[in-house]
Amino acid sequence: MSLSRVIVEADGGSRGNPGPAGYGAAVFDSSRAVLAERKESIGTATNNVAEYRGLIAGLTAAGELGASDVDVRMDSKLVVEQMSGRWKVKHPDMIPLQRKAAELAAQFASVTYTWIPRAENSHADRLANEAMDAAAGMDTAGMDSAGIETASEPVPVSTPRTAPAETSSEPQIAGSPGWTASVGKPTRMLLLRHGQTAMSVDRRYSGRGNPILTALGRAQAAGAAARFGSRGGIDAVVSSPLGRTRETAEESARVLGLPVIEHKGLIETDFGEWDGLTFREAAQRDPELHTAWLSDTSVKPPGGESFDEVRERVIAARDDLIATYGGSTLLVVSHVTPIKTFVQLALDAGPSLLYRLHLDLASLSIAEFYPDGGASVRLVNDTSHLR
Question: Is this prediction's pTM over 0.90?
C-alpha cells in the first residue's frame, strides 16, 4: 500500500506521572478514514515519555503504510515544539526518544507538527487510556486515582505500602507525631475502606449505588475486625450509610461491642451518570468531560458531584466528629474519596493527592486532628490484616 499524505494523531499519559503509562496513535487519510491504530502499555513512565512513544508508534505506522508526507497532530505542546525545533530537548529521558522520532521522520518527504486541543485528539486519547488501563490493571488491587472500584485480592503485606509501620496503639499527644507544635489530645481517626463488592471485581465507578460485599469482601471485613478487636482502645464506630461500608463496619463493631453510628458526610462521591460504568465506558461516553474531571476537582460527572463538593462535606463531617468525640479514637468506615480527603486535610496537601494516592480495599489509614487545629498522618494504606 502506498499513500501520499496521511494524518498521525498521537497521545500518551501516565496515572501518577510517573505511574502506569501507555500511548495511543492513529493514522488517518484525508477523509478521516482510520488506516492504522497503535496502542501499548509501557509500564511505569512519565506523561512526556508516553507521549513521545505515541509519536514514534504513529510515525512507524505511517511508514509501514508507505506514506510520503505526514501531518502530525498532538495535544502535547512539549513534543510538538521540540520536534519542530523551537524548543531544546534537555531531559535525559527525552533525548533518545526525540532522536528516534527524528530518525523516523527523516524517511518521509515532509512532516509537519501541529498542536491541537485535547478535545480534538480524542481518538488517540482513547487508545492511550485503554493502554493505561492495561498498564495499571486498574492497579490490579484497589482503586485507581479517578475513583473506580477495582478488584482486590487479599494481600499478605506485613507493613504498609506507603507509610511507616504503626508505632503505638494509644493516641500520642504534645506534638510527638511529626515536626509540629500541636498540643492536647488529638481525635484519632482509623480510616477503614470497605471490602470488595461486585463493582470492585468489574472495576466500575461505584458511588451511591448499594452493592453488597462479596465473599472476599466479608473476609476482608473480618480480617479488619480481628485487628481492631485485638488492639482495643476504640471509642466509637462511625460509618457511611451505604451497605458496603455498613456491612464492613458491623464486623468490627460486633467484635468491639459497639454500635455502628451512621454519618452521611462519609458517603462516597456521587458519580452521577457514570455510576456503574468502567473507566473506559465513561471516557468513551463523555471524552472531554472525563478528561477534564481527571485533573480538575471542580468538574462534576454528569448529574454527579465534584471532588470539591466532597471535600466540603468531609470537612463538615470531620468537624462534627471532633466536636462529638474530641480526644477519642474513632473507627471511621468509609470509601476511597472521603478517606483520601481526610488524609489530604491532615497533610494540608493540594488536590493532586486525590489523583495520586492509592488505597486498597479494606485498607487502613490513620489521621489525627488536634484541638489547636494541627494534624498528622500516622499510617496510609496498610493491609497487614489481610491474609
Answer: no
